[in-house]
Every structure is written in structure tokens, then in C-alpha cells.
Specification:
Layout: H1 3-28, H2 41-54, H3 69-81, H4 87-109, H5 120-128, H6 139-159, H7 166-180, H8 188-204, H9 207-234, H10 238-251, H11 261-279, H12 281-297, H13 300-318, H14 337-346, H15 353-370, H16 385-393, E1 401-403, H17 411-415, H18 432-443, E2 449-453, E3 462-472, E4 475-484
Parallel strand pairs: 1-2
Antiparallel strand pairs: 2-4, 3-4
Length: 488
């Protein structure tokens, strides 16, 4: 066999995984070219901050949003690809999906034959067509491959009864920093990871190896931490990073559950587990099948590792008492082994070509029929209020805009406008400076156009110039465009 043929044979599974990622993301994500716009508010918040950074503003200091800086730099890169669409994010989503599927496949190979490649389209379909995927481009989506890598690495080391290699430790440290500075509530996974491996190294009496591992993890961590520190210190915004990303996230989010600290947290996590089951039922069931297999067929430390990291992730994701559908998407990191669990239950050990064809067809049907976003494909660009309003706004040279009283609706994105206001939209926090700046902007007529959602604007400074209804979530929202009376 020639070297070329050997290379092709050795890497054909990667091609299958890549094509699977392309198919799943293109159909399920509203960032793909099949959709005129991803109108989910979270991605538009991220994109607006990324755009602001690309245009010279300093995150947190000049523009206020509460996710991590790495997520905004990702969107700065996407903005460089396309200023008024999510094409750049679509490409990055495909890369993230490919690596998630790659590490999921490698994880499965420890417990099954190479023929599990036939199941990867099913895993992709179940993951990316779930309600927890929402519209695509969540913080959880970009962290998914990093957690999958660490699960694979942990199982690999324990199953082979070896310590983590220097490279594995460095990548683990890098992934820890990545997740920390994208959305730190997902760091619960790494708490479980660290605890289990401290136990592992202690039992093996390898203190020196543990020290080397810690040092290598720190090296990987610093690869992200140092550039971030340099950026924020250079722009005199380090205090803003600490205040907004850590302090405000910890103390401004309010929950309505019982006010007894320990009991409150337990209730939050229990409700969170229920939210996981409701918003990501296939992921929940796959996790259950994975747990059944892990408990029944693997040895002590693999059981401790898998259960420990799964529970730690779930605990810290829902500890704060919020249950948005997309929170549970990160739990798909643990779902791949559900395939092995199902196989062990039905006692079918081999998959042939017919099985491959059947699974592929079922996967395609699942993607086409269960993705919540497919209904939006019937709309044309001109149906979207963002594009409709953009035609009016573009008639004013260097127009300024305020997204007033609701989360970023995508109007900055389509109009390619960098907001002048630090509080460019209303976030889900009770924060008086945010309300004050938004209200002052309207009262003093500081912008040319104002967009509201499901609410009229009562201001003598602005007149209504257009309104448009469009589906959002489970209902229909009405968007209103107001123009400053003397800026025509």
C-alpha cells in the first residue's frame, strides 16, 4: 500500500467527522448561510463587543457585557471575516464541532471498536439539534471540545494506568484558562478533574510527577492568562475586568429561591438537573446510559473520574439558580459514552455497513425534524426587522443607534454600527447605572435612532418611523424603530 493510501486510510475518519460537523452546524446553527441572521440576543451581544474591540473600544471599560474576554476576542476574529453577518462564527463553530466529535470518537475507541465512527453522525445530531443549542454561538458551544478533550485524556490515563504526559498537562492548563475566561461557571468540571487526579497521584505515591504535572498545567494556563493581563493592564482596564466579569456576575444576579444558603444551593442544583432533563432530554438520557455503562463495566477510578466531573460540572453550572436552556448544552461533553452504554444494554457489539447507513439516515432525520431553528428558513432577509430597519438607518450618514430596554437584538450587527453607549443594551441584571445611561441617552437625544422591543417609546425627542413583528422564542415580538426628530 502506498504512503498516500495509508495516509488517506488513516485519516478517513477525520474527514467523516469534519463533514458531519459541517452538516450539523450548517443545518442547526442560525449563524450558517442557510439563515439570514442569528437573531438570538446572546450572540449579538458577543458580536457587538467583538466589533467594539475591533474598532478601538476596551471591553468592560468602554462597553459593558458580562461574559469572559476570550469569548469577545473570538467574536473580534469573526468580525474580521464578516462585519454584518455570523459567517465567521459559523466557520469557528464547525471547527469546534469537529474537535468535539474527534475527542468523543477517541473516547469511544477505548470501549468499542473503530466501527463507532458509524455512530458519530448520531452524536452530532443529538447534540446540535437539541433545544439547549438554541440558535448557535453560545459560550458553552466553544467550551465543549475542551471538556471533551479533558474527559478523553483523563479516561485514557486512568485506563492505561499512567500519569498524564507533559503535553496533556499543558493542553489541560490551556483549556482551563480558556473556559475560565469564556464563562467561569463551567470551571466546575476542572474542580472535579483536579480532585480526582490528586487522589490518583496520591494513591500511586508519585509526588514528583504530580509537581511536574502542576507546573505543566500552569504553563498551559499562562498561555492565555499572560496575554489577557498584558491587554488589560496596557489599556488600564484590569479593575474593569475584575469588577464586571467576576464581581458583577457573582453579586448582581438575583434568584428567588429559599434564602437559606445551603438549602438554597441544593434546591438550585436539583432544579438545574430537572432543567437539564427538560431542555436537553437526549443529552440527559445519553448521560444516564453512559453512567450505567461506567458504573457497571469500568474500574474504580474511571467511575470516580466520570461521576466526579459530571456532578461537579452540573453543580457549578446551576449553583447560581438560573436555568436558561443553553446552560445544559455543556453537559453534552459526557454524552458520547452513552452510545457504548446503549450497546451494552442491547448486547449488539458490531456495526456493519447497513447499520452505518441506518444510523446516518436516522441522524439526518433527527437534525432535519428536531432542530428548533428550521422553521426560520422560510423567512427572507426582508422579513427580519433588523434588515428592514437597516434600510432606514442607512439613509442617515454615520448614524448612531441605541438598543433600548432589551438584550441586543442584532440591529448593531446588521447595520454595522459600533454603539457609543457603554450600556449598549439592557442585560439581565438589576444594575442602576445601566438603566440610568440608557434613559439619559434617550432623554438627551444622544443617538439618531432607538430600537425597542414589545414596548413603545414615550419621548418627545423621537418619532416612530417603522415597526415589525417577527417570531422570537415561543412567541411573536414587535420591534419599533424611532428616529430623532431633528436628525432627518
Amino acid at each position: 500500500m502506498s504512503k498516500t493510501k495509508k495516509f488517506i486510510k488513516a485519516n478517513v475518519f477525520k474527514l467523516v467527522l469534519f463533514l458531519t460537523a459541517v452538516l450539523a452546524i450548517t443545518i442547526c446553527s442560525k449563524c450558517s448561510p442557510l439563515y439570514p441572521l442569528n437573531n438570538w440576543d446572546d450572540p449579538n451581544c458577543f458580536f457587538t463587543v467583538g466589533k467594539a474591540v475591533a474598532n478601538g473600544k476596551i471591553m468592560y471599560k468602554d462597553i459593558y457585557e458580562q461574559k469572559g474576554p476570550v469569548l469577545y476576542f473570538i467574536h473580534t476574529a469573526a468580525y474580521a471575516i464578516s462585519h454584518t453577518s455570523f459567517i465567521g462564527i459559523w466557520l469557528l463553530e464547525i471547527i469546534a464541532a469537529f474537535f468535539f466529535l474527534l475527542f468523543s470518537y477517541k473516547m469511544l475507541r477505548f470501549f468499542a471498536s473503530h466501527k463507532v465512527i458509524y455512530c458519530m453522525p448520531l452524536i452530532a445530531a443529538l447534540t446540535y439539534s437539541s433545544a439547549s443549542f438554541v440558535g448557535g454561538d453560545s459560550a458553552e458551544e466553544f467550551c465543549l471540545p475542551f471538556l471533551a478533550y479533558c474527559i478523553y485524556t483523563g479516561i485514557c490515563a486512568i485506563k492505561d494506568n499512567r500519569i498524564l504526559s507533559s503535553f496533556e498537562c499543558i493542553v489541560t492548563g490551556f483549556s482551563m484558562a480558556f473556559v475560565l475566561f469564556v464563562k467561569y461557571t463551567m470551571m466546575g468540571f476542572y474542580i472535579g478533574f483536579i480532585v480526582v487526579f490528586l487522589m490518583w497521584y496520591h494513591e500511586k505515591k508519585q509526588a514528583k510527577e504530580l509537581l511536574n504535572c502542576v507546573l505543566n498545567v500552569m504553563k498551559g494556563f499562562l498561555l492565555i492568562l499572560i496575554p489577557l493581563i498584558v491587554y488589560f493592564i496596557y489599556y488600564n482596564a484590569f479593575i474593569d475586568l475584575v469588577t464586571v466579569y467576576f464581581h458583577d456576575n457573582l453579586f448582581l444576579y438575583k434568584t428567588e429561591t429559599i434564602n437559606i444558603p445551603v438549602l438554597k444551593q441544593v434546591i438550585n442544583v436539583v432544579i438545574g438537573a430537572g432543567s437539564f432533563a427538560i431542555n436537553n432530554p437526549t443529552g440527559f438520557l445519553m448521560s444516564i446510559f453512559a453512567l450505567i455503562y461506567i458504573v457497571k463495566y469500568t474500574d474504580k477510578y474511571i467511575r470516580i473520574f466520570f461521576i466526579g466531573t459530571l456532578c461537579s460540572t452540573l453543580f457549578f453550572v446551576y449553583l447560581g439558580g438560573r436555568y436558561y436552556a443553553y446552560y445544559s448544552f455543556i453537559m453534552n461533553s459526557f454524552c458520547a459514552l452513552g452510545i457504548v452504554g446503549i450497546k451494552s444494554l442491547v448486547k449488539k457489539r458490531n456495526f456493519g455497513r447497513k447499520s452505518f447507513a441506518a444510523v446516518s439516515i436516522i441522524s439526518s432525520v433527527l437534525i432535519l425534524l428536531t432542530s428548533r431553528n428550521l422553521s426560520l428558513m422560510r423567512f427572507e432577509t426582508e422579513d427580519y426587522p433588523q434588515y428592514r430597519f437597516a434600510k432606514i438607518i442607512s439613509q442617515k450618514e454615520n448614524a448612531s443607534l441605541l438598543n433600548y430596554g432589551f438584550l441586543d437584538g442584532g440591529f448593531y450587527t446588521v447595520c454595522d454600527i459600533t454603539p457609543d453607549c457603554r450600556f449598549f443594551c439592557e442585560l439581565n441584571i438589576p444594575y442602576e447605572p445601566m438603566y440610568k445611561e440608557q434613559n439619559d441617552t434617550v432623554e438627551n437625544a444622544l443617538v439618531d435612532f432607538v430600537v425597542t422591543k414589545d414596548e413603545n417609546l414615550s419621548s418627545p425627542n423621537y418619532k416612530l418611523v417603522d415597526e415589525c413583528k417577527f417570531p422570537y422564542g415561543d412567541g411573536i415580538s414587535t420591534y419599533y424603530l424611532y428616529q430623532k426628530r431633528w436628525s432627518e
